[in-house]
Amino acid sequence: MRFFIDTANLEEIRAAAEMGLVDGVTTNPSLLAKEGRNPIEIFREICQIVDGPVSAEVGSTEYDGMMAEAHKLAEIHPNIVIKIPMTLDGLRAVRTLSEEGIKTNQTLCFSPSQAILSAKAGATYVSPFVGRLDDISSGGMDLIGQIITIYDNYDFETQVLVASIRHPMHLVEAALMGADVATIPYKVITQLIKHPLTDIGLQRFVDDWNTVKDLVQF
Ligand code: E4P
For residue 123, which of 157, 75, 151, 154 has the smallest C-alpha distance? Predict the structure, then answer.
């Protein structure tokens, strides 16, 4: 399973990359707006830090605008993946970009039928948003299971990129289902390691070691 980090914050990306936990990065317009800087500069800097796919989203909602932006974004670095929303124009753009050999990530996927269309269009990744489905009392992780089954049934090559992850169990369930990629906010990455028994056990080992450590010379 590959881990992408879901942020446009360079400090978070650097910190997670130092832990060896970043195979790629996803951004979106809301994450970029939080940084308040030129998005193109941010993409360039991310590509210097991470050697892996970096999703950069188009802002246009019409096919021609999407294609023009996609071509500009793709020029930034070979690792840039063009993120395109789940609309009819978006599907058309995904198909054209796929024919041009440009990698795509179809975003805002909330149903299995949408995921089928992304695969048919040749998307490199599809991003089902599990947290936002949970927010409206719909099973986000059920959608992941359905998409994986459908893609397996037909050997579709589009990779399932689990997005809108809100807590560690989203990641664990995605791993149990065999999702290709999870894009994880920095906060959740740091939560993955937490366990109270680890903290209690470590404290006990440290205390016990302190009773004998003076007998040892390293
Ligand atoms: C995915 O690519 C999106 O950037 C992101 O996962 C959305 O997460 P949110 O629902 O927490 O905003």
Answer: 157
Q: Helix, strand, or coil here: 104?
A: strand
Structural domain boundaries of the chain?
2-215
CATH superfamily of the domain spanning 2-215: Aldolase class I (3.20.20.70)
| Ligand 1 pocket, residue 132 CB under 6 Å | yes
Number of the ligand 1 atom closest to the C-alpha atom of 107: 2
**Closest residue by CA, ligand 1 atom 6:** 164
Q: Is the CB of 6 under 6 A from ligand 1?
A: yes
Q: Is the CB of 114 under 6 A from ligand 1?
A: no
- Report yes or no: 180 and 160 within 8 Å, Cβ to Cβ: yes
pTM: 0.95
pLDDT tens digits along 70-128: 999 999 999 999 999 999 999 999 999 999 999 999 999 999 999 999 999 999 999 99
